[in-house]
Write a structure and sequence with these properties.
The protein has 8 helices and 5 strands. It starts with a strand and ends with a helix.
Length: 212
């Protein structure tokens, strides 16, 4: 009776987050999973009638959507982007897609750029695209995806390690925090000493990742 889909938001709380504005979105429903489709719909898998309670099963997949919004230009663009794929796009296109509003598009562009740099470490076009996306005047989400792309290949790429180390002095605390996290996860031992001053950073998240 209490199953279903709930909504909530998050807000910063020290080095982490806390949940705010909890609410019911679709209840009661024996939802086992949900996913956002590229077509602007929410897909929900439903147990149906529970066999272990005398039911006959009959699981279903429901879709929820706003008839007007799924016809919007934004949804159409995302649907077309994924229909075409990302591997055959130019490096310049992928760099531009790092600024796309949809997180899934940014993520695919990030992975495609990282894979190209893994195959050809000296690919100047990819380095330029990611470095451009890391500029301070770019949206934070764009900068983070570019930083994460460097993190994907930093273990075997010196240019990527240099790009990450440079961000330890960035003016945005979230960039500094993610750079510190990557220094650790990518085992960048040569720049570990640069984390020591960050233990006194004004941002709790920067201090946390530097300590870890």
């Amino acid at each position: 009776g209490n199953g279903g889909i709930e909504t909530f938001k998050v807000e910063p709380n020290g080095a982490g987050f806390r949940l705010t504005n909890p609410g019911d979105f679709l209840k009661p429903l024996l939802a086992s999973d949900m996913e956002f489709g590229y077509d602007g719909k929410i897909y929900v898998s439903h147990f149906g009638n529970l066999i272990w309670k005398g039911g006959n099963g009959g699981g279903r997949v429901y879709t929820l959507f706003d008839p007007q919004k799924i016809q919007s230009d934004e949804v159409k663009q995302v649907r077309e982007l994924f229909a075409k794929g990302f591997d055959n796009r130019t490096t310049e296109e992928l760099g531009q897609l790092l600024e796309q509003a949809d997180q899934r598009v940014r993520r695919e562009a990030q992975f495609s750029l990282a894979e190209r740099l893994r195959k050809i470490p000296e690919d100047k076009q990819v380095l330029i695209a990611l470095s451009h996306a890391l500029l301070p005047d770019k949206p934070l989400t764009t900068r983070l995806h570019a930083l994460w792309a460097f993190g994907q290949i930093a273990r075997e790429d010196g240019a990527a390690r240099d790009a990450i180390a440079k961000q330890l002095k960035d003016t945005d605390p979230e960039i500094r925090a993610n750079a510190a996290r990557l220094v650790g996860s990518c085992q960048m031992f040569r720049v570990v000493s640069q984390l020591v001053p960050l233990l006194k950073d004004s941002s709790p998240r920067v201090r946390m990742w530097s300590a870890i």
